[in-house]
Amino acid sequence: MEGPFDGSVKFFNADRGFGFIAPDQGGADVFLHVSSLSRSGLQPPMDGQRVRFSIRAGKKGPEAANVSYV
Q1: DSSP symbol at 43
Q2: What is the pLDDT of residues 28-48, one digit of tens each?
Q3: DSSP string spanning 5-32?
Q4: Which domains does the chain have, with CATH numbers?
Q5: Percentage of the residues of the chain whose pLDDT score is greater than 70
Q6: Which of 9, 11, 19 has its CA nearest to residue 52?
Q7: What is the spatial distance between Cα 1 and Cα 49, in angstroms, rounded to a whole number?
Q8: Three-state DSSP class for 35?
Q9: Cβ(26)–Cβ(69) under 8 Å?
């Protein structure tokens, strides 16, 4: 796991349970799954929500973990 990093939620589809974070440091968007939010007791984010997160290896590539709202 790497991080923590800061970024903004690019979009989040609550019906489908996923979205992407645009990291402040640039680079590829990071996949955000609803399970990472529920583990932290968070409600689904609004687009543009500021977040702090770590990155872990997911099933299909890098995935956000330890997500918190800032």
Answers
A1: P
A2: 999 999 999 987 789 999 999
A3: EEEEEEEEETTTTEEEEEETT-SS-EEE
A4: 2-69 (2.40.50.140)
A5: 99
A6: 9
A7: 22
A8: helix
A9: no
Instruction: Using alpha carbons, select from 26, 1, 24, 6 the residue that is nearest to residue 70.
Output: 6
The Cβ of residue 7 has, within 10 Å, a number of other Cβ atoms equal to 23
CB atoms within 10 A of CB 8: 14
Lookup: tokens for 40: 């932290």
Tokens standing for residue 29: 């968007």
Rounded to an integer, the average pLDDT of 51-64 is 92
Rg (CA), the chain: 10
Q: Which residue has the tokens 């970024």?
A: 7
Number of residues that this document lists for the chain? 70
Please provide the average confidence, as pLDDT, over all residues in the chain.
93
- Max Cα–Cα distance, the chain, nearest Å: 29
